[in-house]
Structures are given as C-alpha cells and as structure tokens.
Amino acid sequence: ALLHTYYLLSSVETIGVQGLKGLTYIDQLQDGMKVLEDNEEVQIKRETDWIYTNAASPVQISGVDNNSVKIDLQLKQGNDIRPVDAVLWNPWVEKSKRMSDFGDEEYHRMLCLEPGCVSRFEKCAPGQVWSLEQRITFPL
Which of 29, 42, 107, 132 has the fewest CB atoms nearer than 10 Å to its CB? Predict the structure, then answer.
C-alpha cells in the first residue's frame, strides 16, 4: 500500500529531501540493491525509484518555492505506531518519454515522496485496524 503523493515543483533540480540519512533504501533500478543513505540532503539528478525502509518522521522537501514541505509519516496497527517505507520517485528523461500519460519534460517539475508499506508484508487480524497516515505541512 502506498499513498501516491506527487509534488508539483518549480524545478526538481533545485530541491533537496532531508530526513533519510542513515536509512537503507532498495534501489528498484539496480535489481533491488540495498544502499545505505549517507547524505543529509538527497538530490534528484537522475531517474530515481528508491524505497527507504523504516522511515521515521519527519521527512522534509526543501527548496519548494523558497519554502520547505514537512511530511509526517506514520503506520498504525491498533495503538502501535510503526515505521513506514518512503518511496522517492522521479522518472527523469528516458522513462518520461516512454510514459503515455506523462509529458516528456514533466519530470523537471515533479517529485513523488510516497509513504507506505511495500518492502514487507503487514498482517491485520480480524477486527484489528491498520492505518497509514501522512500529514503535509506547507508554510503559507
């Protein structure tokens, strides 16, 4: 399950994503290779399809129209709060051209940061509640 959140940006090349340092991500473009994120700020400079596992809040996108977007991510199972996966995705040049529902140059102006649970299975017993929450804060 993923909450598909697409952010419209002035330019993906000028933003940074904070809050992911120290997490392991699964690189979907490199046969699922696991990589330890060692950057304070992740920048998008190429096609990106990374699943950050055990992400905690908050994750922040900076440089969005000279502001920062704060994203709180949470998975609840009953009263238990658990880490989520955070998928960072941008199709970049070549994949954009192959996508029929995506303009060739639209990758410049978008970023997906999708909270969810895709790296593992979660069980939900009968009568139990499982919820995925995302709170986005944008200064006005």
Answer: 29
Catalytic residue among 41, 108, 114, 122: 114
CA angle 106, 91, 74 (to 5 degrees): 105
Q: How does pLDDT run across 60-105, given as a tens digit for each residue? A: 888 877 677 888 777 666 677 778 899 999 999 999 999 999 889 8
pTM for this prediction: 0.89
28: tokens are 């979907």
* Total residues belonging to the chain: 140
* Tally of CA atoms within 13 A in the half-sphere of 27 that contains its CB: 11
Q: Write down the residue that tokens 């992911």 correspond to.
A: 20
4 included as an active-site residue = yes
DSSP notation for 5-47: -EEE-S-GGG-EEES-TT-EEEETTTTTEEEE---SEE---S-
Q: Which of 4, 13, 40, 105 is catalytic?
A: 4
Active site residue 108: no
Exposed / middle / buried, residue 17 (Cβ in 10 Å: 0-12, 13-18, 19+): buried
